[in-house]
From TrEMBL:
It comes from the Bacteria. It comes from Actinokineospora fastidiosa. This is Uncharacterized protein.
Length: 85
C-alpha cells in the first residue's frame, strides 16, 4: 500500500488496505468521467425516471457546477448538443 490516498482512507476508516484501495479506485473512476460522459449518463438516468427535458437540463447544469472537474458553464443548447449531437 504505497498510495498516500489509499493509506489515508485505510487509516481514517479502519478499512483493510485492499478494501480501501477498491474504494479509492471506485471514487476515482466515478469522478473520472468527462463532462460529455456525465451529461449523457445523467440525462439517460433522469429520462428513465420520467423527468422532462426542461427539468433535466436545469438539474444537470446544477450538478455540473458541483462536480470536481473543471467544467465551463454550459447553456441548455450546449447540453442538448452533447446528448443529441
Amino acid at each position: 500500500m504505497t498510495d498516500p490516498l489509499v493509506r489515508h482512507v485505510a487509516q481514517s476508516t479502519g478499512l483493510p488496505p485492499a478494501v480501501a484501495a477498491r474504494v479509492v479506485a471506485d471514487v476515482v473512476a466515478y469522478y473520472g468521467e468527462t463532462v460529455e460522459q456525465f451529461v449523457r449518463r445523467r440525462h439517460a438516468e433522469l429520462r428513465n425516471r420520467q423527468h422532462r427535458n426542461a427539468e433535466i437540463w436545469t438539474a444537470v447544469a446544477e450538478e455540473l457546477a458541483a462536480r470536481p472537474f473543471a467544467a465551463e458553464a454550459l447553456s441548455e443548447r450546449q447540453l442538448r448538443r452533447i446528448v443529441y449531437g
